[in-house]
Write a structure and sequence with these properties.
This protein is α+β, with helices and mostly antiparallel strands. The chain folds into 2 domains: about 110 residues, Pnp Oxidase, Chain A, CATH 2.30.110; about 60 residues, Up-down Bundle (Methane Monooxygenase Hydroxylase, Chain G, domain 1), CATH 1.20.58. Helix content is about 35%, strand content about 30%. Helix 4 packs antiparallel against helix 5. Bound molecules: flavin mononucleotide. Flavin mononucleotide binds next to strand 2, helix 1 and helix 3.
Length: about 190
């Protein structure tokens, strides 16, 4: 199973970076597989640690895609790094093994601390749609435009039906990001 998370890493100077990543979890281990190139990959390689933040709040996913990643953060307990303020829970991890690959290396990370912050208040379909739209936003250049537009239209329905004001505003932003991306692709 793949879990969609927000990963925070730091570079050698201590600057934090947040980015959405799908991870695999098995007991005390987490697998992170970043495509080359990415900042998360560079940071994992140089500092050998990360924080895997669990959240159902789509605002973190959408804003990451829009490049607005100046999220509030707090210091981790066991590793030199930060967790996402407002996340439900997080795992602090250290890299134990790197499986090199020309396209997508895999970092096998050991969980050294697990913290729960907030109660999970239940599933919302609009948030699911927003996270799916974020995935589409990262694939504008690879997916067929017609298929992309169809999927986006399908995903908009749960937002209309089940989203609150926040989800509806986020939807407009990610929809615009995708349609701007499509226009750039055509030109
Ligand atoms: C929900 C979600 C899951 C993602 N999972 C991955 C992943 O597993 N591997 C990957 O390379 N990119 C993944 N991405 C795309 C990265 O978030 C994206 O490439 C990002 O720009 C990397 O940021 P960074 O360069 O700051 O590390 C995912 C995006 C979303 C929205």
């Amino acid at each position: 199973m793949i879990l969609e998370t927000i990963i925070s890493t730091i570079d050698k100077s201590g600057n934090v970076n947040f980015a959405p990543f799908g991870i695999k979890k098995n007991k005390n281990f987490i697998l992170i597989s970043p495509y080359i190139p990415s900042k998360t990959l560079n940071n994992l390689t140089s500092t050998k640690s990360a924080t895997v933040n669990y959240t159902n709040d789509a605002v973190f996913f959408v804003n990451s895609i829009l490049g607005k990643k100046n999220f509030k953060k707090k210091k981790c307990k066991k590793i030199k790094g930060f967790f996402l303020d407002g996340c439900l829970a997080y795992d602090e991890v250290v890299v134990e093994e790197i499986k090199n690959d020309k396209i997508r290396p895999t970092f096998k990370c050991k969980i050294v601390e697990s913290v729960s912050n907030k109660r999970f208040e239940g599933l919302n379909r609009a948030q699911f749609s927003l996270i799916e739209a974020c995935i589409l936003a990262t694939r504008i250049n690879f997916l067929d435009t017609k298929k992309l537009m169809e999927e986006l239209s399908f995903l908009s329905k749960p937002v209309e039906k089940t989203g609150g004001q926040t989800e509806k505003k986020l939807w407009k932003k990610i929809e615009k990001f995708v349609s701007d991306g499509i226009k750039k692709k055509k030109n």
